[in-house]
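[recover] target loaded
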């Protein structure tokens, strides 16, 4: 999930090219399904287009599309993005109808920084954040001179620093918690930090002594959190469940409501538990708090 979104001009250009966000794009008041009606007035028979990260979000949505959607009378299309910015901009602009890839702290910060008005619909799953290394066997082996890669967005960087502090790698200022920034480190113990886009970190693991990697990107790069992580975020009481989200005003769209119900179904719970039996993804159903 993102917040202090650091897009270079090249990335921004690539983003625009990917989505075709140009003057000839579809107007923002028209959905990707071609319907100008929104919210409860949306055509329930129209296709619902949802943006998602490939794993696990795309996996879960594809399962729903292939096994549950037709019986529920839902036409579902999944568009996958290896990015934490484009799914929200596409949802805001009407390029897609909804997205599934982020947690509440990230969305709150994104809305504030980008002046968007995207809202959560229902929680679906949780991906514990992990610390990985190809050079050390445990977190305690990371000492002075070591380099650790962390996500460069505010919410995930805060989670990463809290994970490191919880495992004795660094010491944070009192009371900071998961809102921590690099400037909130009280004692870095001589460790250096490399800030990278979350999606880039797994491919750079060999270049650093350790890296904090989001669960979806970890499993997307064949890492097994339960076996490969030298430190793993605890699931109990974790506020970072990922949810289905839409542009404000579209929560009552009958297609969105159908999808929300399916995403919280027993079938999806079983699918998550079986496909991600390594504990990399956990069902986290219900209303979004806060």
């Amino acid at each position: 999930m993102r917040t202090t979104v650091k897009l270079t001009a090249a990335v921004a250009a690539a983003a625009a090219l990917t989505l075709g966000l140009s003057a000839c794009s579809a107007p923002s008041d028209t959905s990707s399904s071609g319907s100008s009606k929104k919210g409860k007035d949306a055509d329930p028979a129209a296709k619902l287009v949802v943006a998602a990260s490939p794993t696990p979000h795309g996996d879960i949505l594809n399962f729903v599309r292939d096994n549950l959607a037709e019986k529920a009378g839902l036409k579902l299309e999944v568009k996958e993005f290896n990015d934490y910015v484009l799914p929200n901009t596409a949802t805001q602009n009407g390029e897609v109808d909804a997205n599934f890839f982020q947690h509440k702290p990230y969305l709150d910060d994104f809305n504030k920084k980008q002046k968007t008005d995207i809202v959560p619909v229902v929680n679906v799953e949780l991906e514990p954040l992990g610390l990985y290394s190809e050079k050390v066997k445990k977190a305690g082996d990371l000492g002075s001179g070591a380099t650790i890669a962390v996500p460069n967005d505010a919410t995930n960087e805060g989670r990463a620093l809290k994970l490191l502090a919880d495992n004795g790698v660094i010491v944070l200022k009192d009371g900071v918690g998961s809102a921590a920034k690099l400037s909130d480190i009280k004692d870095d113990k001589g460790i250096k930090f490399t800030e990278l886009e979350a999606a880039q970190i797994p491919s750079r693991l060999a270049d650093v002594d350790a890296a904090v990697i989001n669960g979806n990107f970890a499993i997307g790069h064949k890492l097994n959190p339960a076996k490969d992580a030298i430190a793993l975020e605890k699931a109990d009481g974790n506020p970072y469940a990922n949810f289905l989200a839409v542009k404000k005003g579209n929560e009552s769209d009958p297609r969105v409501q159908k999808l929300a119900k399916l995403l919280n179904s027993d079938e999806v719970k079983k699918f998550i538990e079986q496909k991600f039996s390594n504990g990399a993804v956990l069902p986290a159903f219900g209303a979004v708090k806060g």
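[recover] notes: The chain is about 30% helix and 20% strand.
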